[in-house]
Amino acid sequence: QVQLVESGGGVVQPGRSLRLSCAASGYSFSDYGMHWVRQAPGKGLEWVSVISDGGRNRYYADSVKGRFTISRDTSENTLSLQMNSLRVEDTAVYYCVKDYRVYSTSGILEHWGQGTLVTVSS
Amino acid sequence: EIVLTQSPATLTLSPGERATLSCRASQSVTNYLAWYQQKPGQAPKLLIYDTFNRATGIPARFSGSGSGTDFTLIISSLEPEDSAVYYCQQRGDWPPITFGQGTRLEIK
Questions:
Q1: Most CB contacts within 10 A, which of A59, B9, B20, B77?
Q2: Confidence of residue A1 (pLDDT cuts 50, 70, 90)
């Protein structure tokens, strides 16, 4: 079965960097697009970024554009999110999400990891 | 960016009753509208995609309808475990993917 396990969260000061990882298993990782979605404490869901199955196409929410970078390592079946210049408002649980459709990026968020908490605070 | 507005904010019903949750888009998303269920302390779970298609393993008591800008999630006969926050999400015009603010469903 599909498993997505995030790691790398923690407490970080504003302006610093953090790198999140997501280990994928139970399916052919290279065949599916992957997303990051976040949820601030007690708030709703916010889509952050997507990377296509082949890694060629990457898109970001305006709120993180220029600060966050999504990447994938097919040899390690790992999705990453490099977060630079962190702000207090980036505090959230970050979810790694597998797209529904094979060989494309549909925007249907089929499988979710359990999330990793990032707290940006001085 | 397409804005999704969900109503009501909170819904309190009894087991066996029918729940009707609404989602309105600021512009047409065609039929590219999904619904997710999130229970406390858990990740969201895909229920319905492209308006009316149930995801794998989702019971038939969950159904979706609508088109364009107005969509509905119906839970035909509520079970206690249906207590959760429900989010709608559009992929009609993305990026960005956008979500509604959520409807909290309480089963009393």
A1: A59
A2: very high
Pick B96's closest partner by Cβ from A47, A108, A113.
Answer: A47
Q: Structure tokens of A46?
A: 């916010």
Residues 28-47 of B with CB under 8 A from A: 32, 34, 36, 42-46
Contact present, A11 and A34 (Cβ < 8 Å): no
- Rounded to whole angstroms, how far apart are CA atoms A42 and A29? 31
What 8-state DSSP symbol labels residue B100?
-
Alpha carbon distance A63, A73 (integer Å): 25
pLDDT score recorded for residue A104: 87
